[in-house]
Amino acid sequence: xxxxxxxxxxxxxxxxxxxxxxxxxxxxxxxxxxxxxxxxxxxxxxxxxxxxxxxxxxxxxxxxxxxxxxxxxxxxxxxxxxxxxxxxxxxxxxxxxxxxxxxxxxxxxxxxxxxxxxxxxxxxxxxxxxxxxxxxxxxxxxxxxxxxxxxxxxxxxxxxxxxxxxxxxxxxxxxxxxxxxxxxxxxxxxxxxxxxxxxxxxxxxxxxxxxxxxxxxxxxxxxxxxxxxxxxxxxxxxxxxxxxxxxxxxxxxxxxxxxxxxxxxxxxxxxxxxxxxxxxxxxxxxxxxxxxxxxxxxxxxxxxxxxxxxxxxxxxxxxxxxxxxxxxxxxxxxxxxxxxxxxxxxxxxxxxxxxxxxxxxxxxxxxxxxxxxxxxxxxxxxxxxxxxxxxxxxxxxxxxxxxxxxxxxxxxxxxxxxxxxxxxxxxxxxxxxxxxxxxxxxxxxxxxxxxxxxxxxxxxxxxxxxxxxxxxxxxxxxxxxxxxxxxxxxxxxxxx
Length: 496
Fold this sequence. Notes:
By secondary structure, the protein is of the alpha/beta class. It has helices at about 45-55, 90-95, 110-120, 135-150, 165-180, 190-195, 220-255, 260-275, 345-355, 385-395, 400-410, 415, 425-440, 460-470, 480-485; strands spanning about 5-15, 20-30, 35-40, 60-65, 75, 155-160, 185, 200-205, 210-215, 305-310, 320-330, 335, 360, 365-370, 445-450, 470-475, 490-495. Helix 7 (about 220-255) packs antiparallel against helix 8 (about 260-275).
């Protein structure tokens, strides 16, 4: 990871959210100029917290974050803050520039055009006056990146930059980062994307609350960590056998009495010595348990019919009406595809709300909607309160034991379940959204980019659950590896 001089150091940094919720414990690492580093760790391990400490948005409980004098830092966050969605593109970029200068930026439009071209978001009429909420999720992701680039920082922080990006967008971003001359830190769960440019990894261990620093590309580091864990597990397994053998011998000698009791004591002492030799093996990131999304019972006939829909033309950027012949019944899985900005999310939202023109959902069908921005969740409610409401609405009663069992399968532990949803990490919100779907028992499942923010270790488990879902399903995803694990009966390209 050694490229240039050290520009950032964490010196024994500790941090916690509230009382008894430690995130980092005396963490130390350094970052060199020109390096491209991945931050890796389980959902809730503190990856975004690291960014908050670097930008001074958060202050450590103890320890020091030291940055090079005059180091400029810009961050591209996971999502545009909700209040900012009402801003125009120009207002949003002016706000971003205020982070690096207290002077009004005159004639900012050409600068906006330059960075929008870098993120491959060009060709839109009157883009500077367009309100952010009118852009698709993928287009918003590109704007977030551009708002960081316009600051021309020495250190660029990217928090899940591939979320909502289509294949072309990810390829464009990858090429940009490969050739980017400055320092970059990236949080992402996209393994292929990370491996293309990473030269080091910071691994956040959610159990020890420490950070380990590795040199090499992403796949090599993963291989090194896996090999180490296997070696440590093998050593501990052998030691465990020897320890048990010594204890068994000690028990035999102890029962014989006399001078053999001294031998028994020495055996126990030897067993204790061997226990001290056991390696403190890294506890592997937990993954969610296999789960099933129950299907609404007694589904019959056609569940949803789509005869027409609206899209935004990639060429003219105007709304165009298209014809379709889509009929979904029980066990029918549909994949919707198309580039960023064409209208996939708009179509899914209108279907979920029952307002889609040209589409009909059969009466009595429960719709389970996984929205990419998690706005279907009540951010002001606790996880427990929200799940209780869902269960009561769908079953008429609250089975506390069942509810907590479902929550636990999604790593929603006792210290998380009473937390406000809005205070959770984006990855944890995603897991709450999946727990909600399990409790809802939908007949129609609508999923908009369900891999966003989710730990890559969880994705095969989620893919299997969707593959086995027995109701009707409409899926939008730009992650081919994830989609390949799910039974897809029909694919519909909105662009064609």
